[in-house]
Design a protein that fits this description.
single chain; 254 residues; mainly alpha; two-stranded antiparallel ribbon; 8 helices; 2 strands; 68% helix; globular; transmembrane helix
Length: 254
């Protein structure tokens, strides 16, 4: 139930903030849209300007303007942090996405150990480092190339293209990702080939079917609304919760 509510909430947020900007090139060429135009006439927050879809919020902290990330600047330290993140993302996308995934997997395991582990048990630092290293060395870099190739092959945002990309991600990539994940964790625990096979045979179906319950709707929003450069950040935002599950699954004894 909580997963369904979270996904429906994500869909509502996606509809509100990521209206289709179809078809669009990279972050530098967001098109004008009716949402921004309505905001310019006193929309949410007060004094909207005729800015890009991300812009138009001058009241309440948002300051619209034409920039490469759609014109939105949130006032204060968060805005500076967001602008800096996007700047680094543009200049060094691979390491930035790797670190983004490191943060997502680290938080996910911390939550798993804090709320689902044995009560009063000390933090398992080795386990935390195993999950964090997977995010840094595998999830971030592989996601950068995988989703980049997927967007290059299927650049449109229509329903058929989105469906194809979701199917590729879940039918082809999800099993491969799950196998790599188990193998990585087991190798870092010193497991041999036989133990790795045993772990995969034990938990592969569980991992993939869990993925099918969460990620299809998440990726419909992803491929329909999210700018390509922001895909991995969006995925990692959702992935924090999913990483709690992966952390617990990885810690099961084979």
């Amino acid at each position: 139930m909580r997963v369904a509510v979270a996904l429906l909430g994500s869909l509502a947020l996606g509809e509100a903030y990521f209206r289709p900007l179809a078809p669009r090139a990279p972050l530098s060429s967001f098109s004008k849209c009716s949402v921004a135009q309505s905001l310019s006439h006193g929309g949410i927050g007060g004094n909207g300007g005729n800015d890009d879809v991300w812009g138009g919020w001058n009241g309440g902290g948002w300051n619209g303007g034409d920039d490469e990330h759609g014109g939105a600047h949130y006032g204060g330290g968060l805005g500076l942090l967001w602008d800096k993140y996007n700047e680094v993302l543009d200049t060094n996308p691979l390491p930035t996405k790797a670190v983004t995934s490191l943060v997502g997997f680290t938080i996910g395991d911390l939550l798993a150990q804090s709320f689902l582990g044995e009560k009063g048990a000390p933090l398992d630092v080795k386990r935390l480092l195993r999950l964090a290293s997977f995010g840094l060395a595998v999830h971030g870099p592989v996601g950068h190339f995988f989703y980049g190739a997927l967007d290059e092959k299927f650049p449109k945002k229509d329903a058929q293209t989105v469906a194809i990309k979701v199917l590729i991600d879940q039918v082809l990539w999800a099993p491969v990702f799950t196998v790599i994940f188990f193998a990585w964790i087991e190798v870092l625990q010193g497991a041999g080939l036989q133990k790795i096979k045993q772990k995969i045979n034990q938990d592969l179906v569980r991992g993939v079917t869990a993925s099918w319950k969460v990620w299809p709707l998440v990726h419909v929003i992803n491929f329909r609304f999210i700018p390509p450069q922001q895909r991995l950040l969006y995925i990692n935002t959702i992935q924090i919760g999913y990483n709690v599950f992966l952390s617990m699954l990885a810690s099961r004894k084979a």
